[in-house]
Amino acid sequence: MKQAVWILGSLLAAIAAYTDWRWRRIPNWLTIPGAVLGIITNSLAFGWPGAKHSILGMLLGLGLLLPLVLIRSMGAGDWKLAGAVGAFYGPSQLLTILLWGALLGGLMALILIIWRRRMGQTLRNMFHIFASFFSLHLPSSEVTLDNPDAIKIPFGIAIAMAVVLYSAGHSWGFHP
To answer: pLDDT truncated to tens, each residue of the chain (176 aa)?
Structure first.
């Protein structure tokens, strides 16, 4: 049954990656039932401890990424996907997956920044974001998802790659 949890979690992430790539959206019809399925699957596999582990993972994913959604630097679909992935994998595995997802997303961003020759603009935007953070103000709309000229990374793809790599590594006996 544990394999079913990992397989379903990987399938959820793969579908989310496809929708994020194709339509630049991760829909509610995927993330919300995905979170519920993660909780149910863990409950069936491990009983009450599995349900508790699953709910804590979901809450951790939602809690960690909520600030990024609130300042409009991450989409709500990516946020809900992190909660659904947390429901499948639990809090400790989710932290590893999110770390790998952030590294892969950062690599994707760096490639796009170099490809589109936007290094100077990106450095200026980062300065504005840090200045906003330290002055306790929200960043301007120029450095959020609201800017149509901003380079946007499909973070769902990075999360999906991290989930699949993590699951494959675990099934092959690698335990990060």
So the answer is: 778 898 999 999 999 999 999 999 999 999 999 999 999 999 999 999 999 999 999 999 999 999 889 888 899 999 999 999 999 999 999 999 999 999 999 999 999 999 989 888 888 878 877 787 778 777 777 777 777 877 788 999 999 999 999 988 877 777 65
Ranges of each domain in the chain: 2-116+151-171
Q: For the chain, how are helix, strand and coil distributed in percent, rounded to 5?
A: 80, 0, 20
- Is the entire prediction scored with pTM above 0.90? no
Instruction: List C-alpha distances in Å: 14 to 84, 100, 128, 135.
Output: 13, 16, 34, 39
- Are residues 154 and 26 in contact, defined by beta-carbon separation less than 8 angstroms? no
